[in-house]
Design goal:
By secondary structure, the protein is of the alpha/beta class. It has helices at about 10-25, 65-70, 100-105, 115-125, 135-140, 145-160, 170, 195-205, 215-220, 235-240, 285, 315-330, 335-340, 345-360; strands at about 5-10, 30, 45, 50-55, 60-65, 80, 85-90, 90-95, 190, 210, 225-230, 250-260, 270, 280, 295-300, 310, 335.
């Protein structure tokens, strides 16, 4: 059988493109993944206790794109969910991102919104150029808050001091003068009602799509006839690390099931301190599942393991540009997704990128979720 497209990777980018090419353009698609499941890092499943967990850490859907939300709504119903995070700082659980209640709780104050704005301004250390992650935070809230909430967390997460990381790592972290303790403020904030995996299964439920799991595409690309390739894996791996390896950070997860309905006071608690883990997530907050027990997960960042986060440093961006140029000159192969383009995208951004690529492949001037 001749396939029009071999899609490498069954995460968001691969599943969206496979669905669109098959259902939207009538193409024959083979999608493969080295893992034993679809969904990529957003894969969820019921653990031994019957609790729905995210195998690769918490995935919280949020977007300002009506088109992206409407597109995904074809394959799932939604549970309204607004994410909240606390940080364990100086023996207290305090809201993150930093807001009015964070400051009042930390320092035992009773500031108003106007007063907390002046509080930040008095402690901020202005920087003429915001080059690093340290510059971004210190210029907003000063060094003390930077060290309490950001410095150690960032060092654990990235294995580098914030002064060694690009400003983009913390540039999108807001600082609020009101009591809004939501982690995100996007227009659409929701979780797939029956989980991400069910959503992906529905995406790929089409006679024009064939799925091969536990399969390395290098083992089949010369065996199974296909016209073009959509590649969502690490771009440097595709080219056999011709220019050297692109650095990634990875994660190790430790799951624990507790014999109690609720374990912690918030969906996610950050630990910007000496603990080896960065955060603990309790999944029932995210899913809304009712169960007598609860499952939590600890996250331990590291340099070994599956690639999760491209490391944002100038020398890494320069290395990627060499691969990007090579990718552009490789006919019949389309690189997409976080790993394929070496960028830290949110889930909705990956969906948008995939839909844009589909529009280009289909010859459409623009994509719509009509």
């Amino acid at each position: 059988m001749m396939f029009d497209y071999l899609v490498v990777g069954a995460g968001f980018a691969g599943c969206v493109l496979a669905e669109r090419l098959a259902r939207g353009s009538g193409k024959k698609v083979l999608i493969c993944d080295v893992r034993p499941h679809v969904g990529g890092n957003a894969y969820d499943h019921h653990d031994d206790a019957g609790i729905l967990v995210h195998r690769y850490g918490p995935h919280i859907f949020h977007t300002n794109s009506k088109e992206v939300f409407e597109y995904l709504s074809r394959f799932t119903e939604w549970r309204s969910y607004q994410h909240r995070v606390r940080a364990w700082v100086d023996g207290q659980l305090l809201p993150v991102p930093i807001n009015l209640d964070t400051i009042n709780g930390l320092y035992g104050l009773h500031l108003t919104s106007l007063e907390v704005d002046a509080f930040f301004a008095a402690r901020a250390e202005p920087r003429e150029h915001l080059k690093t992650s340290e510059d971004v935070i210190v210029s907003k809230v000063g060094r003390e808050l930077y060290e309490k909430f950001f410095k150690n967390y960032t060092r654990k997460q990235w294995g580098l001091d914030p002064s060694e990381l690009d400003a983009s790592v913390t540039a999108r972290v807001p600082v609020r003068t009101n009591r809004d303790d939501r982690y995100f403020t996007d227009t659409y904030q929701a979780m797939p009602l029956h989980g991400f995996t069910r959503m992906f299964d529905r995406m790929l439920d089409h006679p024009g799509i064939k799925i091969l799991l536990k399969t390395d595409f290098r083992e089949i690309r010369d065996q199974i006839p296909h016209a073009e390739v959509i590649y969502t894996g690490p771009v440097d791996t595709y080219f056999e690390h011709r220019f050297g390896k692109l650095p990634y950070r990875s994660l190790e997860f430790k799951f624990e099931t507790k014999d109690q309905p609720v374990h912690q006071a918030a969906p996610v608690i950050n630990y910007p301190n000496e603990n080896a883990y960065t955060r603990i997530t309790e999944f029932k907050y995210l899913t809304g599942q009712l169960h007598a027990k609860t499952t939590i997960v600890y996250e331990f960042p590291g340099s070994d393991g599956d690639p999760y986060y491209p490391v944002p440093r100038p020398e890494n961006a320069a290395l990627y540009r060499r691969y990007e140029e090579l990718a552009r000159s490789t006919s019949g192969v389309h690189f997409v997704g976080r790993l394929g383009t070496y960028r830290y995208y949110n889930m909705d951004q990956v969906v948008a990128q995939a839909l844009a690529l589909y529009a280009k492949l289909a010859g459409a001037p623009q994509w719509k979720a009509a």
